[in-house]
Design goal:
Distance between the termini: 54 Å
Structural class: alpha/beta
Order of helices and strands: HEHEHEHEHEHEHHEEEHHHH
CATH class of the largest domain: Alpha Beta
CATH architecture of the largest domain: 3-Layer(aba) Sandwich
Helix content: 25-40%
Strand content: 15-25%
Largest sheet: 7 strands, mixed
Radius of gyration: 21 Å
Strand order of the largest sheet: 4-3-2-5-6-9-7
Shape: elongated
Length: 283
């Protein structure tokens, strides 16, 4: 295991502070500093950046981000048990780590980071990771406040984020991410790298904003994709009927076949659908 600083090994930190991972908080601590350093490097040049980290736990990735030269790390941690361990890291890197106790789903990330050059890097808690991603990629202001996302998910979620039309993993999440972002899965991480080991493989996903996404009301796109994939075995003329009794005609106006299913429609097609439904005041 790499020695990236003079702080104690993470296993010793966990033992000293009694930080047994809580399933209720979606915690699985990544202890291999070789891997946390690899994630930090994947986030890009951090020397002029504020990095927002969600769920730092005992601070493995936090230490790697700081060791990689991050100008400042803002770490949001819901579990108060982790705060003393994070305080030790803050003391080791004076003025470069700000720890905020709270629920990331309820906090304004722009207010936390103060704007500027912001990158988000995190081993996201499994139970809130997808919702946090959706929040970050559906913000009304675009380009967003962040310049990149380097995030760890369950591999299954990572595959859904980066899925192509026609694949089993393709769904609402893939459409939203593909519409506004570009990127993909960088590498997988074995369950053995975590304490406790999860039952699934994890994957690190890196996304950057598409600075000129196709024009579309993201709220309408969310509703159309939710309806279409909510009944993915049905044809569009049936699955979208919950949005408009004229769904079949609106699908035709979008240049699509009403008998097609959601998994067959690419991002351009969904954007056109959303625009047609909005113009018809169906959503």
């Amino acid at each position: 295991m790499a020695q990236i600083d003079t702080l104690p090994p993470l296993r010793d930190v966990i033992a000293a502070h009694g930080l047994n991972a809580k399933k209720s908080l979606g915690q699985n601590f990544l202890l291999d500093l070789n891997l946390t350093s690899r994630i930090a490097r994947s986030a890009g040049d951090l020397e002029d950046c504020t990095v927002l980290e969600i769920g730092p736990g005992p601070g493995g990735l936090t230490r790697a981000l700081l060791a990689a030269g991050a100008r400042k790390v803002v770490a949001v941690e819901k579990d108060s048990r982790c705060l003393p361990a994070l305080a030790e890291i803050a003391e080791h890197y004076p003025g470069r780590l700000e720890v905020i106790e709270g629920d990331a789903l309820k906090l304004d990330p722009v207010a936390l980071t103060g704007g500027g050059n912001v990158r988000i890097a995190a081993n996201l808690p499994y139970n809130v990771g997808t919702q946090l991603l959706i929040n970050w990629i559906t913000t009304p202001e675009w380009p967003p406040f962040w310049s990149s996302l380097t995030l760890m998910f369950q591999k299954e979620v990572g595959e859904r984020i980066t899925a192509e039309p026609g694949s089993k993993a393709y769904g609402r999440l893939g459409v939203l991410a593909g519409w506004r972002c570009k990127g993909g899965i960088l590498f997988d991480i074995s369950p053995k790298a975590f304490t406790p080991p999860p039952k699934v493989t994890s994957a690190v996903v890196h996304l950057t904003p598409n600075l000129a996404p196709l024009p579309c009301d993201q709220r309408v796109l969310e509703r159309v994709t939710a309806a279409a994939f909510g009944q993915r075995r049905k044809m569009l003329r049936a699955s979208l009927k919950s949005l408009s009794p004229n769904a079949e005609e609106l699908v035709r106006q979008a240049g699509l076949e009403p008998t097609a299913r959601a998994e067959e429609i690419d991002i351009v097609g969904f954007v056109e659908l959303a625009n047609i439904f909005k113009d018809a005041q169906a959503v």
